[in-house]
Amino acid sequence: MTNDPLFIVMALVMFAVVGVLLFGIGSFAKGGDFSRKWSNKAMQWRIAAQFVAVVLILLFAYFRQGT
User: Which stretches make up the HIG1 domain (predicted)?
Assistant: First the structure.
């Protein structure tokens, strides 16, 4: 399974979701001007990244159901 290109892309996107989530939480914690500028945008990026991750997970499950 780890040699499957779709699995690798799916895993990378899931790690990106975690990275964006941590950035968003960090921007909330930092507060001030930085938080006002980046917190909402980071959470919007997280939603988009999660959407891509869910679509890739569904595609992976659909294409690999017979194997």
Answer: 1-67
